[in-house]
Amino acid sequence: MNTEWRRRRRLVSTAISILAVLCKAAKVDSMAPMPRPVVKHRIELFFKDPKELKERLHFLHSHGFSAYNLVNKNKKDTVEEWVKCIHREIPDAHICAHYSLKYNKVARRGVDEHEAKLQDFVSKTQAQEILMISGSGKDTAWNTVIALDVCQRFDTKISVAYNPYFPDLTDQELEDQRLSQKISVGGVTKVYLQFGTNLDRLKSALEELRNRNVTVAGSLFLPTKQLIAQQKFRPWNGVFLSPEFLSSPENAKSIVVEMMKLYLQFNVEMLWEAPGIRTEKDLQVVFDLVEAVLGHQRGEESEIDRRLGLVSTIKAQDKLAGPGPTKRPKTIENVL
């Protein structure tokens, strides 16, 4: 098992070098500069109490993950206390704190009171980024557009959510209009894409967002039997999954791999949604997905392998490393 992990880590490290070489080659073929794609991974944290949060943080950080998202799905959530906890445990952490307008309303009060609560949060938060979420999808007097206008008075980076997967075209047009309204307010620096399985919709959305002055983060599910069973029994609101995705972990993996390829192509940050990566087994799933994305199947050579001799390089590294311990860090930082 240890030998296999060492092989995978060496494979990932070599793959990073390959991407750099490919980007340099592309520059030679094009007058327009092509920056090297730098795809980062974020983890949406799922925990029951502060003790579990700390344990999860140290596990993830030991494997190279230092960017985290904190969800806000309850009125009792103490998001800012969680932010402070993360910074105490992982000083170099990058945190995106979700702010739900639905769960942060001031009871029996109006827009002014809601604005004051938001201003207090934004002015005091230690999070580097805030993801503004309506929490309901309804057009009310206190909505995301008004909240974004409030946030322009502060320096904190603000993100918004977007779902390109609505089956009903009327619903999709409304969602597209809402995104345009949000961005037109100003101050939006990033767009988080909902998870879905319609790859044509995803590609179209990424092409459209490339023309806007924002970065993009795309959601990912671990394609496990447990996740599929959960989505069959009680699907999440606004998550649209195809029958093919729900038919088996193997089919789900194939779809996630294609999504990751699109994310890599468009230089999209990858967000592993809650429950996220919690165990070594989850981490193994991520490694398997990365290998599939890069075309590395055991005993086979991909097109990249043939062009750049990756398989020969890995075999040579294996021979040099031998059966003994390796000095390579046990991390998947910058895995793509």
Any overview of this molecule?
The protein has a single domain, classed as TIM Barrel (Alpha-Beta Barrel), CATH 3.20.20.220. Helix content is 49%, strand content 12%. The chain has helices at 2-29, 50-62, 79-89, 111-124, 144-151, 169-185, 199-209, 225-233, 243-247, 249-265, 280-293, 303-308, 310-321, and strands spanning 41-44, 67-70, 94-100, 129-133, 157-162, 188-193, 215-220, 269-272. The two termini are 23 Å apart. Strands 1-2-3-4-5-6-7-8 form an eight-stranded parallel beta barrel, surrounded by four helices. The protein is α/β, with parallel strands linked by helices and 336 residues long. It is globular. The protein is built from 13 helices and eight strands.
Q: What structural category characterises the helix and strand content?
A: alpha/beta
- Give the termini distance in whole angstroms: 23 Å
Order of helices and strands: HEHEHEHEHEHEHEHHHEHHH
Q: Tell me, what's the shape?
A: globular
Low-confidence stretches: 25-38, 296-319, 325-330
Give me the Rg, rounded: 21 Å
Report the sheet-strand fraction. Answer: 5-15%
List the helices and strands and how they pair.
Layout: H1 2-29, E1 41-44, H2 50-62, E2 67-70, H3 79-89, E3 94-100, H4 111-124, E4 129-133, H5 144-151, E5 157-162, H6 169-185, E6 188-193, H7 199-209, E7 215-220, H8 225-233, H9 243-247, H10 249-265, E8 269-272, H11 280-293, H12 303-308, H13 310-321
Summary, kept brief:
The chain has one domain (39-296): TIM Barrel (Alpha-Beta Barrel), CATH 3.20.20.220.
Keywords:
336 residues; TIM Barrel
